[in-house]
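Minutes, project check-in
Item: structure for the 261-residue chain
Input as provided by the requester:
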Amino acid sequence: MPANQLFCSDNLMVLQQLPPESIDVVYLDPPFFTNRTHSTAQHHFSDEWQNLSTYIRWLYERVAAIHKLMKPTATIYLHCDWHADAYIRVEILDKIFGYHNYLNQIVWHYVMGSSAQRNWGRKYDTIYWYAKNPNKYHFDLAAIKTPYSPETIARSQRGEARYKTQLTEQDGKNPGNVWTDIHPVQGNSRESWHYPTQKPEKLLQRLLLAASREGDVLLDPFAGSGTSLAVAQQLNRHWIGIDESQEAIALCQKRLNICEV
């Protein structure tokens, strides 16, 4: 199918027109049911809802359409937070994909202080990972291994009993599903496009390297600032991005260095 496509539209309309079983990996970072408007000086979007049931019905319809587009070997990452994560898993992902197609959930932990005064500081997002078929999905551990610490390498080379082999700087480990080594994008960061809720490129790099190959097609139906699309392009993946905001699409065009939709 034609790839590297950017659509300014209600994503449900586009999803219903794309060919079935044409997508290799999906990343979606939808509104989180925060019931507020997210703003920076340059960009804003509304995340306000009548109630939780309205939000779940709205998102369910879109994830159901995405499911039809996924190849039998495809997986989906759905990025959310505490506002609705339990409902998204039980009422949307388990019902559409099936409980047994749940692969894992990634905890993206923010290593920073919290301003909460009357609650435990909320310092992580959840990224659910589901497969279209749990026996066929792609996962490339070698592409995402993280380095061992110098202390771990030194202990292994001293022959401590817990280490079966001597490790070197070239060796790496599975990063696990709790990620503390990726920091949110700050407004003064060189990576920032001043878009509210912009996700860091390193986060998308790890997700896409693990779940896709060069030439695969990524679908992001909530493209926002275009981080997933930019990373897919850097990694020689194809991409399809959708957003109903003209401001977001204009930012994606600028970031991807394309002239028109």
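Outcome recorded: The mean pLDDT is 93.
No further action items on this chain.
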